[in-house]
Write a structure and sequence with these properties.
Distance between the termini: 75 Å
Structural class: alpha/beta
Shape: elongated
CATH class of the largest domain: Alpha Beta
CATH superfamily of the largest domain: Alkaline Phosphatase, subunit A
CATH topology of the largest domain: Alkaline Phosphatase, subunit A
Largest sheet: 9 strands, mixed
CATH architecture of the largest domain: 3-Layer(aba) Sandwich
Radius of gyration: 29 Å
Number of domains: 2
Number of strands: 21
Strand content: 5-15%
Length: 627
């Protein structure tokens, strides 16, 4: 009587084990379903009930493959097979769950380049573990809690599987019939067709990191391959030109101003333009910097790539960096820069003093290639016998950076170019007043205020040492910071204003610069402007930027790319910004004058979109060709 509840050939005592193994395989869908919920809630997700099957088709295929493989391995139960299947499917589930988190934070699947980058910089990145594990991953669950629940469910499932096997059950199924073969084959073919025919979803949502490369490889056999050709790269509109050619043109302002002898260049970490309120009547987080802006030159500045080392290349060379995760900038022993020219022509001594760990991404070697000697705070002669407190794996506290740095600068004989790299505003935002367990926008703002307080003390100390005279000050951010405004956090992955705009201020104590509010600028414009203000008029250094004193009335087009490959790129032609989503092939347009928070994308004709994409592809092709 009981046996009639089951299909003939599948004994009732065997059904629970088969169902448990199927449930074990279906757990592999959990990371993708959680990712879909996260993207729909935070990142203009496009997945609905209608297209859900298309988005998870590859994941279902992987789950079915695991289920089939598990059945074949456990048709005759043994301890070794049981352990191998448990470990294998467990590692796969963990891998897919980690991929889910990487996609949430950096908007692209986990790949070899990201794994290599993480391993190469593991020591410096370990302070980011809190961010990775302790922020929300889906609904109100942190990734740490989500991972715990997934692991708990998986462990409980395998306890039941072991119990079932120990009770004498096996995974042997009934004899296959033509009907069953037809059903399985049809379902598999349908999923394969859906996987091949799926449109380009934002952030490659439909791809499974296991099966995705296989489908992409097969597709590539039947589609036209894109490659970087010389014609595309040659069409890029901002190829480098010798700096002295543009410095021969008339200045638009500051005509006849005496050149500066020295420069102090402060590169703030993670200092975004938004929220600073350096202009206008709104209370500012940085009154010292606002005061400098009020008696100097100020501009909202666009980054080239929202990542520190990439920003350094743009800032110190006046050229765009390599648009991707590879640190190709550090491969050259010497990069052509104005700092080499200032040393040769004016005997200027160039050096950098940093709270950051300069071993990270070989930043010390990169600075040396620019002609800039570098010191971490604790390496300064003035630091002998003084304890420099470690703040995080990214570097040390800024408490001694400026005081010891000011002493070091005061002892330099002759002209100097001093670069300072404060770290206060970098994640994990551990500053006076911040909550070290929170790491949010409030804590970041505390760190911005602390950075400004440190700047005020630095200026006062320099004045005491008598090194303010004839010294140009340049203050800029390396990149901005995201706090969920468009679903992402920290930096590297976004082309939105909060991540790609930073403050830029030129100032001197004697007031010779006057007060000028400029149209938006680019990081690649800073080195040419410094060269102009320091009288290095004959420098033949190749640059893609322009001196802000001599540029035309309109801002040249700004080209940008994300740090992570093939994620996003953009063109800014103020007030309009055009963000190219490489995963979908679409362009999002924003009018930043009327929509500063970038909440309402504009419609663009197809012809306009294609023209913008071609310009961006030319930019990416040229920069990759250069490196």
């Amino acid at each position: 009587m009981t046996g009639t509840r089951f299909r003939k050939g599948l004994p009732p005592q065997r059904l629970p084990l088969v169902l448990l193994l199927l449930f074990n395989a279906l757990l592999l869908l959990v990371p993708k379903l959680a990712l879909i919920e996260f993207f729909n809630a935070n990142l203009w997700g496009e997945v609905t009930r209608t297209n859900l099957i298309v988005v998870i088709a590859q994941d279902i295929l992987v789950a079915l493959a695991v289920f089939g493989l598990t059945l074949s391995l456990l048709h005759a139960s043994s301890g070794a097979r049981l352990l191998s299947v448990a470990l294998g499917s467990g590692f796969l589930l963990l891998f897919l769950t980690m991929d889910m988190r990487v996609r949430e934070l950096w908007l692209k699947p986990l790949d070899v380049s990201m794994i290599r980058y993480t391993l190469n910089n593991a020591n410096s990145l370990k302070s980011g573990l809190d961010f990775f594990f302790k922020r929300n991953a889906v609904y109100s669950l942190t990734f740490e809690r989500f991972l715990f629940y997934v692991a708990l469910t998986y462990a409980f499932t395998w306890l039941l599987i072991v119990w079932s096997v120990a009770s004498g059950n096996t995974a042997t199924t009934s004899r296959w019939t033509w009907l069953k073969v037809m059903i399985v084959t049809t379902a598999t073919c349908g999923l394969v067709i859906l996987s091949f025919s799926a449109p380009h979803y934002r952030y490659r949502m439909n791809e499974n990191m296991i099966s995705g490369p296989l489908f992409a490889g097969i597709k590539s056999l039947f589609t036209k391959q894109e490659y970087v050709d010389e014609r595309l790269a040659g069409s890029f509109e901002q190829r480098p030109l010798p700096l002295n050619l543009q410095l021969g043109a008339a200045r638009k302002f500051l005509e006849g101003v005496k050149p500066f002898r020295n420069v102090i260049f402060i590169v703030y970490e993670s200092m975004r333009w938004r929220d600073l309120h350096l202009l206008g009547d709104v209370p500012t987080l940085a009154p010292t910097l606002a005061g400098m802006a009020a008696s100097g030159i100020i501009s909202k500045c666009y980054v080239a790539v929202p990542h520190s080392a990439k920003a350094y290349y743009a800032l110190f060379t006046g050229r765009y960096p390599y648009p991707g995760i590879e640190m190709r900038e550090v491969l050259k022993e010497s990069n052509d820069t104005i700092w080499h020219y200032l040393k040769d022509s004016q005997r200027t001594k160039s050096f950098a003093i940093s709270s950051q760990n300069l071993a990270f991404e070989s930043m010390g070697a990169l600075l040396k290639s620019f002609g800039i000697d570098s010191y971490e705070t604790g390496q300064l002669p003035e630091a002998k016998g003084i304890s420099v407190r470690t703040k995080s794996s990214f570097g040390t506290s800024d408490n001694l950076l400026y005081s010891l740095g000011a002493q070091f600068v005061s002892k330099v004989n002759g002209p100097f170019a001093a670069v300072f790299f404060p770290l206060a505003a970098h994640y994990p935002y551990n500053c006076n007043g911040s909550d070290t367990a929170r790491h949010n926008l409030t804590d970041y703002r505390f760190c911005v205020s602390e950075s400004d307080t440190n700047l005020a003390r630095f200026l006062a100390t320099l004045k005491q040492f008598g090194v303010m005279q004839d010294t140009l000050f340049v203050v800029v951010g390396d990149h901005g910071e995201s706090f969920g405004e468009h679903g992402t956090y920290i930096h590297n992955s976004s082309m939105y204003e909060e991540e790609v705009t930073v403050p830029l201020v030129f100032w001197s104590e004697d007031g010779r610069l006057g007060h000028h509010v400029l149209a938006p600028s680019r990081q690649i414009d800073i080195a040419p402007t410094i060269s102009d203000l320091m009288g290095a008029m004959q420098a033949t250094v190749l640059v893609q930027g322009v001196s802000l004193l001599r540029r035309q009335d309109s801002t040249p087009a700004v080209f940008m790319a994300t740090f992570f490959d093939d994620l996003g790129a953009a063109i800014v032609e103020p007030p309009f910004k055009y963000i190219y989503e490489q995963s979908t092939g679409r362009v999002l347009a924003f009018d930043n004058a009327n929509d500063p928070l970038e909440e309402s994308p504009l419609g663009l004709p197809a012809e306009k979109q294609q023209a913008l994409i071609q310009r961006i592809r030319a930019f990416l092709a040229y920069q990759k060709q250069v490196f």
